[in-house]
Amino acid sequence: MGTFKIEGGHQLKGEIQPQGAKNEALQILCAVLLTPEVVTINNIPDIIDVNKLITLLKNLGVKVKHLGPGSYSFQADNVNLDYLKSADFKEEGRGLRGSIMIVGPLLARFGKGYIPKPGGDKIGRRRLDTHFEGFINLGAKFRYNREEYFYGVEADTLVGTDMLLDEASVTGTANIVMAAVLAQGTTTIYNAACEPYLQQLCKMLNRMGAKISGVGSNLLTIEGVDALGGTEHKMLPDMIEIGSWIGLAAMTKSELTIKNVSWDDLGQIPNVFAKLGITLERRGDDIFIPEHTNGYEIQNYIDGSILTIADAPWPGFTPDLLSIVLVVATQARGEVLVHQKMFESRLFFVDKLIDMGAKIILCDPHRATVIGHDFKSQLKATTMVSPDIRAGISLLIAALSAKGTSTIHNIEQIDRGYEHIVKRLKKIGAKIERFEGN
Ligand SMILES: CC(=O)N[C@H]1[C@@H](OP(=O)(O)OP(=O)(O)OC[C@H]2O[C@@H](n3ccc(=O)[nH]c3=O)[C@H](O)[C@@H]2O)O[C@H](CO)[C@@H](O)[C@@H]1O
Ligand SMILES: C=C(OP(=O)(O)O)C(=O)O
């Protein structure tokens, strides 16, 4: 287990370039299984989850070439389906959440797809019903081994149909789309998720020869085709990382420029941080955050009542930034109610912030009220364990703003989704060191 030691209370300054989007990368990498031709992918983030998925693809027989920083080519012209029966696969497949999305492409191209219960953050129940109901709707037979938590779908042919998803699941929609592109006839998916990750996936699939319309909406229409070909794709910047750096700038009262953010793909994100009182300036495609010398003030609603920030499927506010919103609010002027609707166990990390001196009331597992200090009282350094990726980065931001030296254990959780974080944070002046072990 790795550890960060962080000396807090220092202002940062400079430019930071966001990495390629983790959640997009996990979808796009799985899509290489849909064609025997070469797919070249750029701006792939160098993070644990993505590297695990690349290893899994290699073990499945996909030819992987590293072309340069963040660029790889993939060719799935000799896929080894026997690997899916191996003990190694049962171990590797559960190493991350994104591995679930190999099932749709494998089912569509080879008639069978298997996966052990995938990993990812322990942030509450994370069911997979939407994925498998979708495959069943396309004509697949489903089986589940309860002892081994092993899922499987099989079908000689998939046949397009109309379906209404029980929830707008991000990875579920991606999985079903990747199965439907090679099905016979037309599939419609209503209540589809439409995050930029999915829009990017659909655009890439269309470049490979798929026929998907409605991209960006919650109604996708997919005309099945016989085969897909190769293509080249570039990942968008990671919007969750961008939100994390906005929070970091505000909490440390630092002037930061976040470079090349693809502003038009950020949806509500700039707006939500602006509601917390943070000044964000659009400079071309960069976000400039000035030094917040006088702090930042949370806006109330028009009628004077307390602001609520809640998550919702896109174009709503992403749940992956609520932990960051929460930590940023601890130093704001004013109060906010943070409502994490999707996940049941994602707010428990507030205990740590309370230990550090933050004024937070955890109302129930989904809601926390934060009363900001307006920098009149600094958070105190402490020792903590990162419970999940976004709580981890939030605790890191808290530590960078706190007085004294903090220790964060279990930083692999942060490494899952943040590329070369020590090097990048040091470049803007952060005092952070990594240690292996505890
Ligand atoms: C690898 C990857 O891409 N992970 C992301 C993906 O996970 P993932 O695809 O696993 O998440 P889902 O979209 O399936 O759902 C996440 C949770 O939200 C609940 N839910 C979902 C849809 C809905 O309309 N209402 C609702 O309550 C689900 O029951 C589930 O508990 O999407 C999540 C939701 O944006 C993000 O937090 C994860 O970072
Ligand atoms: C919850 C997240 O990731 P995963 O779905 O991979 O656990 C996240 O990225 O915030």
UniProtKB/TrEMBL annotation:
Q: Which CDD domains match?
A: UdpNAET (cd01555)
Q: What is its EC number?
A: 2.5.1.7
Q: Which GO terms describe its biological process?
A: cell division; cell wall organization; peptidoglycan biosynthetic process; regulation of cell shape; UDP-N-acetylgalactosamine biosynthetic process
| Keywords of this entry | Cell cycle, Cell division, Cell shape, Cell wall biogenesis/degradation, Cytoplasm, Peptidoglycan synthesis, Transferase
Subcellular location(s) per record: Cytoplasm
Where, by residue number, is the active site?
D121
GO terms for MF: UDP-N-acetylglucosamine 1-carboxyvinyltransferase activity
Could you tell me which PANTHER family the record lists for this protein?
Answer: UDP-N-ACETYLGLUCOSAMINE 1-CARBOXYVINYLTRANSFERASE
Which NCBIfam families does the annotation name?
A: murA, PRK09369.1
What name does the UniProt record give this protein?
UDP-N-acetylglucosamine 1-carboxyvinyltransferase
This protein's species is Bizionia paragorgiae
